[in-house]
Design a protein that fits this description.
2 domains; 6 helices; alpha+beta; four-stranded antiparallel β-sheet
Length: 173
């Protein structure tokens, strides 16, 4: 039997192999992309050192905060308070702000926020308003947060680009 006009079969075979190869490459790309995103998240968010440093800030606030005007009272009609952005904020009403600046410098903080217990309000606020105190990385961390009943949050960005968040119990204020 003589083979005649075999060119059509070769073209179909080439298209099938190219489609299969492209599908496999796309699947591999998506898997590696997800792996890379997960790796960056685990490296950049809530490192042990970041959580430890933020816990030191929480202890400092709890120790030196003015009981007449606690943070949760100041937060009442706001989504968040900026506690540190290059220097300690006067909204803390803390005794010894010099120690506050020293603590923030020692912890390599860039920005520290005190946010309410429901991050959905903060997410909506950030979606609708441009804020110079909050970087894009911090916005990405805030998007990942879940609501914790009756627990406000401390959210920090460090000079090395890492971020951390811990709950700050309302009863502790």
């Amino acid at each position: 039997m003589k083979k005649l006009n075999n060119k059509g079969f070769l073209l179909v075979e080439t298209i099938v192999v190219a489609t299969f190869t492209l599908t496999v490459l796309i699947a591999l790309f998506l898997q590696f992309k997800n792996l890379l995103v997960s790796y960056n998240s685990s490296y950049n968010y809530n490192t042990v050192e970041g959580i430890y440093n933020l816990k030191s800030v929480k202890n400092y606030i709890m120790q030196y905060q003015n009981s007449e005007n606690p943070l949760n009272k100041q937060l009442k009609d706001k989504n968040y308070l900026v506690l540190y952005n290059g220097s300690c904020s006067s909204t803390l009403y803390l005794e010894g702000l010099t120690y506050c600046d020293d603590l923030m410098e020692a912890g390599s903080f860039k920005t520290v926020l005190f946010a309410n217990s429901d991050p959905t309000q903060l997410k909506e606020y950030l979606k609708n308003n441009e804020d110079t105190n909050i970087s894009e990385e911090m916005k990405n961390l805030i998007k990942r947060l879940d609501k914790v009943e009756h627990q406000n949050r401390l959210i920090a960005e460090y000079k090395d680009g890492t971020l951390a968040t811990i709950v700050f119990g309302v009863n502790n204020l």
